[in-house]
Write a structure and sequence with these properties.
By secondary structure, this protein is α/β, with parallel strands linked by helices. It has 17 helices and 27 strands. Among the domains are: 153 residues, Rossmann fold (3-Layer(aba) Sandwich), CATH 3.40.50; 104 residues, 2-Layer Sandwich (GMP Synthetase, Chain A, domain 3).
């Protein structure tokens, strides 16, 4: 196993791999078992592109995907990508009003939906003045046109005006209404990979012989973009319909998986499996396990490196692609908590007055020279993300060390101000999640008459029956053994499950709002 493999990938589009090896598998579904070859992916995406073209969609128009992890997802995504279109993938957890907002904000002309999302999509478009066309992707659906029937008689040849499209993705809405993150649409010749795709291929050793485990929902930016980078490279993706810790390990062994992208909560759930269960699986095929999307407690990462070997790579980025940092296993052990040095964009840490802070001091993280982006239909938010030097921020807090390694403290919106002291909830979360009786934890500030805010924790216990005053006292004592008392929660409540996005992001706002309303 190597920590920094190099890439030999030269091709950049599924069509190339279909031509080179018509039987090569682009992806297979973990539970359903369906395999989709590059030949089928190319042919189907061309037919769907022809369908959209016949419906009048042209370069820059937008389509929406409200789809679970099914074999049809990539056929639709690649159809839009090869047609010079924008495409927005919506979370399958959204309500009808939330989906309606995304469809209106993105000006989506067509919505593709799976059966599990059909009802909420129908409800979402019911109140729209100019509703998009509805197409069902897995057979006949009430109120939807059937994709298979629509493309059955269409030619499988490419369009005359093929060009690279681009995704139009929305923030997860953890701090308010989602923002559409809009990049420029250069309409590059087909096969021109995005800059981040080339960066990931080289940094993480994407090769034609790779087998990639995709355990997260495809509508999220990282799983979508990484899977499509795998397809540009010519590898095979194994797509999980939903994440299960034991199943993920079994798939790694069965398919000799070489690469995977996970989030820290997946690490935690695998580590919480009984040793005799998790250690029975052969994970020696792994060459690179990438993690991102949420902070990883240093102790969790250390245990994963001990288990999987020095193949754990972390990157820090955002859907905005304003910055990209990366760190290897060896570097992580030397600098616990760091997300690495920047490969895209120059990081700066500034105070609230725009003054650059020295190494070790925490402030807002800004990126100089990263790719430009804007928030769709929101020039005010776009302006707020820039400073007078043209640097960009997504509002994360952190610091740099003297060697330029970046450390993330928290989102500014999650910062707790208690008695005039800044408290970063990530610190106590990183401690509490390592306790054997804890499955998940959220720490946030709630109103306090004297202090302004006090530190509150909500824990998902491993054994729901253990929730109560005794476990609360045990966890508070455990936290105080490892952190200064002022950083620790004053009290702990218990929930059967925390409102966590399937990609690992925690909806703290939903928890915090309950206490604010109660206050």
């Amino acid at each position: 196993m190597t920590s920094q493999p190099t890439s030999t990938a030269t091709r950049a589009f599924p069509d190339d791999h279909a031509a080179a090896d018509p039987t090569a598998v682009a992806y297979r579904m973990a539970r359903g078992g369906e395999e989709v070859t590059y030949t089928r992916l190319t042919e189907r995406s061309r037919r769907i592109a022809r369908l959209l073209h016949d419906r009048g969609l042209r370069h820059g128009d937008c389509v929406a995907l409200v789809m679970e992890n099914t074999p049809r997802f990539f056929e639709v995504a690649w159809a839009a990508q090869r047609s010079g279109l924008r495409y927005t993938a919506a979370s399958t957890r959204l309500t009808a009003p939330e989906i309606a907002y995304l469809l209106q904000d993105s000006d989506s002309r067509v919505v593709f939906a799976t059966p599990g999302c059909a009802v909420v999509v129908r409800d979402a478009v019911a109140g729209l003045d100019d509703p998009p066309a509805l197409i069902g992707t897995e057979g006949p659906l009430d109120g939807f046109e059937d994709l298979d029937a629509l493309v059955a008689g269409l030619p499988g040849e490419p369009l005359d005006d093929e060009a690279e499209g681009i995704d139009l993705l929305y923030s997860s809405g953890t701090t308010g209404r989602p923002k559409g993150i809009e990049d420029a649409l250069p309409l590059a010749p087909l096969g021109t990979p995005p800059g981040v795709a080339k960066l990931m291929q080289g940094r993480f050793g994407f090769t034609k012989d790779m087998v990639y485990l995709s355990p997260a929902p495809l509508y999220h930016s990282a799983p979508l973009r990484v899977n499509m980078t795998v397809h540009r490279t010519g590898g095979t993706a194994v797509v999980m319909e939903r994440f299960d810790a034991r199943e993920a390990l079994a798939l790694i062994e069965r398919h000799r998986v070489t690469h995977a992208l996970m989030v820290p909560t997946m690490f935690v759930r695998m580590l919480k499996l009984p040793d005799e269960e998790r250690l029975r699986f052969d994970v020696s095929s792994l060459r690179c396990v990438i993690h991102a999307a949420a902070p990883c407690p240093p102790e969790v990462k250390r245990r994963m490196i001990e288990w999987f070997g020095p193949v754990i790579h972390e990157y820090y980025a955002a859907t905005e692609n304003h910055m990209f940092t990366a760190i290897t296993s060896e570097e992580s052990l030397e600098r616990p908590g760091s997300v690495g040095r920047s490969l895209l964009g120059i990081p700066h840490v500034l105070d609230d007055n725009g003054r650059e802070l020295p190494a070790g001091e925490t402030g807002t993280i800004w990126s100089e020279g990263g790719p430009p982006f804007s928030y769709r239909n929101d020039p005010e938010k776009t302006a707020e993300s820039r400073n007078d030097r043209g640097w960009a921020t997504v509002g994360d807090l952190g610091h740099l060390d003297e060697d330029g390694y970046l450390y993330i403290s928290d989102r500014r919106s999650d910062l707790i101000l208690s008695g005039g002291v800044n408290i970063y909830p990530q610190e106590s979360e990183a401690v509490l999640v390592t306790h054997p009786k804890v499955t998940d934890v959220a720490v946030f500030g709630i109103p306090h008459d004297e202090l302004g805010e006090e530190v509150k924790a909500v824990v998902q216990p491993a054994d729901p029956g253990a929730a109560g005053p005794e476990l609360e006292a045990e966890l508070l004592a455990f936290c105080r053994e490892h952190l200064a008392k002022f950083k620790c929660p004053r009290s702990i409540d218990f929930e059967d499950e925390l409102p966590r996005h399937a990609t690992g992001k925690l909806y703290k706002r939903l928890l915090r709002d309950r206490y604010v309303a109660g206050a």
